Amino acid sequence: MAVKTAAKSANVNARMQQDIKKQAEDILAELGIPRSVAMDMYYRQIIMHHGIPFKVTVPWDVPVRDEMSKAEFDQMMATGLKQAKEDDSFDADEVFDELEKM
Fold first, then answer.
1. Cα-only R_g, the chain
2. Cβ–Cβ contacts within 10 Å for residue 43, how many?
3. How far is the C-alpha of 102 from the C-alpha of 85, rounded, in Å?
4. Global pTM value
């Protein structure tokens, strides 16, 4: 018995940060899952869950310097420097205003 599948004719375009895309696609490559299949899986999960298929929250575990290794701290600082150089940041006053609302 042959299974009949619908032709794939819809496109999804999304813009994202290059490093996020690369990291995700490297993992997908390790798993042997093409990007289009991963997106199809994600959309199907949205349909099955009638929403995002995972909990969307802000973690409360804020990194504490005393609990970080030198390598972890250096990586966090390098990421912050890169974001600052790329102007990928938020105004400090706005951030503190948002935190005070919590």
1. 20
2. 13
3. 29
4. 0.52
Q: What is the pLDDT of residues 15-47, one digit of tens each?
A: 999 999 999 999 999 999 999 999 999 999 999
Contact call for residues 68 and 76 (beta carbons, < 8 A): yes
- CA 61 from centre of chain: 18
Upper half-sphere CA count for residue 19 (Cβ side, 13 Å): 5
Phi-psi region of 77 (alpha: psi -120 to 50; beta: other; left: phi over 0): alpha
Residue type, 29: A
Helix (H), strand (E), coil (C) string for the chain: CCCCCCCCCCCCCCCCCHHHHHHHHHHHHHHCCCHHHHHHHHHHHHHHHCCCCCCCCCCCCCCCHHHCCHHHHHHHHHHHHHHHHCCCCCCHHHHHHHHHHC
Distances (CA, A) of 54 to 6, 50, 57, 61, 69: 27, 11, 9, 18, 30
